[in-house]
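User: tokens in, sequence out, please.
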């Protein structure tokens, strides 16, 4: 049976120039390189410059992805950005990126699912492509997460960084088999009962301020391992595949121990898990496309490889996607 699938045609990324190491943070908060590495695996992060906006990061990543895919502004039907740190309350950051890129047709909007934002955006764009409404979509994860950090809270400020990653999806006829190239399936979940375990203590309707990240780290860790392993199994089962069929897992880059325990639970070797956490820290919605870009560019992920993407973030919101490159 012939069906339309979303094929990943290009990847792009952007990281701010400024790098902040663990030793740099130790000068402003009670922490150390050893403490941060032991608990998270993070060694450094990129921080946006004054005046550098989420839309700037997103635009740079999008331009690289478009060039990689060989598409122009005239080809883009849809722009979806996953972000928790938009430039403005409104309009959507996606429309600013649309203008920056010179895209004058189609439609553009943001998706807010925190660390699962890129995955939610990817699933949304995939549905539009499968429906036949969209031929070419630009999907971006972009964050200036440093703007919502409490730099006196060592439990949170050491974990996050800024960046953006992007992919171009193109509609393609496929056979409807698990050997097809493209997005095989996406699986999204949310459970608002856990809101108070990971949240920002501000917003336009509540405090009329941006607020800061607050997190119950141990509880988030416990939920993450269980939920991520479950959603990986869900994606594999939906496609009649097993972990032995996977070439790579590209997870949200939250914590090195979460990555290791999730891989163990689903029966994957850590050697097949793409890890950029040490260099990028947790860039929320940007972490998956940044990691994907790294592994495509360095040649680890090749055409034909089966890649499992997964994430969990505030909400809780979590999910997975299975993609054949």
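Assistant: Sequence out:
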């Amino acid at each position: 049976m012939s069906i339309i699938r979303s094929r990943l045609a290009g990847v792009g990324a952007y990281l701010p120039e400024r790098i902040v190491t663990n030793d740099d943070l130790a000068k402003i908060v009670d922490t150390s390189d050893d403490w941060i590495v032991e608990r998270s695996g993070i060694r450094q992060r990129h921080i946006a410059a004054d005046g550098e906006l989420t839309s700037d990061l997103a635009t740079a990543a999008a331009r690289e992805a478009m060039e990689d895919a060989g598409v122009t502004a005239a080809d883009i039907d849809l722009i979806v950005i996953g972000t928790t740190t938009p430039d403005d309350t409104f309009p959507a950051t996606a429309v600013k990126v649309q203008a920056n890129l010179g895209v004058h047709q189609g439609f553009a909007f943001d998706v807010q699912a925190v660390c699962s934002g890129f995955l939610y955006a990817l699933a949304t764009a995939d549905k539009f492509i499968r429906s036949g409404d969209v031929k070419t979509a630009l999907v971006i994860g972009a964050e200036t997460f440093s703007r919502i950090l409490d730099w006196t809270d060592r439990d949170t400020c050491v974990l996050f960084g800024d960046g953006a990653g992007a992919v171009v999806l193109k509609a393609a006829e496929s056979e409807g088999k698990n050997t097809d190239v493209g997005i095989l399936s996406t699986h999204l979940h949310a459970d608002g009962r856990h809101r108070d375990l990971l949240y920002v203590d501000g917003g336009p309707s509540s405090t009329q301020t941006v607020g800061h990240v607050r997190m119950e780290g141990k509880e988030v860790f416990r939920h993450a391992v269980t939920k991520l392993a479950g959603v990986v199994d869900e994606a594999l089962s939906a496609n009649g595949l097993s972990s032995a069929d996977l070439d790579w897992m590209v997870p949200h880059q939250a914590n090195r121990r979460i990555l290791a325990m999730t891989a163990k639970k689903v029966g994957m070797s850590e050697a097949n898990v793409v890890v950029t956490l040490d260099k990028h820290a947790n860039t929320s919605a940007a972490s998956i496309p940044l990691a994907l870009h790294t592994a495509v560019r360095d040649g680890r992920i090749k055409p034909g490889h089966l890649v499992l993407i997964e994430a969990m973030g505030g909400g809780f919101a979590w999910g997975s996607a299975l993609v054949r490159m």
